[in-house]
Amino acid sequence: MKKILCSRDQVNLKCVLLGGQSFRWKETNLDEYSGVFAGGFWILKQNDDHIAYKRVPATDLDEKMLSNYLRMDEPLDEYYKEWSLCDPIFKKSAERFKGIRMLKQEPVENILSFICSSNNNITRISSMVEKMCTLYGKKIDGTTYYAFPNIETLIGPQVEEDLKVAKFGYRAKFIRQTAEKMFELGSIKWIDKLKNMNYDSAKKELMLLPGVGPKVADCICLMSLEHLDAVPVDTHVFQIARDNYLPHLKKYKTVTQPVYNEIGDCFRKIFKKNAGWAHTVLFLDDLKNFKQLEKHDDSSEGKPFAKKKKKY
Fold first, then answer.
1. Catalytic residue chosen out of the listed positions 45, 215, 308, 309
2. Fewer CB near the terminus (10 Å): N or C of the chain?
3. pLDDT value at position 312?
4. 104 assigned to active site
């Protein structure tokens, strides 16, 4: 295996790969993760001073692709220092969760994967994405894995029927319609246009896609369109905001659109242009707390924390 020099404080693979950003990674051994991106199958091994990696099939660009995917060129120490000065609550989370980076994902995969995330948990989303790849993606040479399908392969009524059979439910229709809409808008050219728009405009464009609401649009903006000020707001983030930043939200039981916007604006006011990245550290800390609470919960099926901890 080849190596990229970096400490665990620079990249925490477990949190970055399994924390709800991407749904194509699995922990295969202690500190070892396997997954698919950039048309290849990868094995990454976390070590104290480096990440060992292998791509199948191997290319001369493997290190560049991995470095780009993990945003290794971004000065994470500077970001953490800046965010900690802005917010003492972040500073506490930063001490527990070092090395949290935003993956730089492929937009088509990101869009269609997060359509699967609606009212779902990470395990099931991962299974659905893998099924979509198996049905419509190109098999990766030398492996049993499949690359994420192209937009063109997800167009047509048969796609919707196939996905319904595969138990995608109402999401089957959204995936087909979104693929058709993206193709109609110009596919990659349209996606490039979104990257060059400001955040608010890009989010509005994304919400024209079937099955893409405010939270999914924010996930896409943050994770694959370079709008790092996008702040996806779910139950966890609502609770973080309510308990630490916006106490008046305690009177709300659900996240209304005005509340959603207020929370996003609050984080952007504190953390500025990389607010979505900073919020991800707080989000992961919240997941950790739910996991700790779950260990002490002996109630039967339908545990409140078991349900909450997986959604994103």
1. 215
2. N
3. 33
4. no
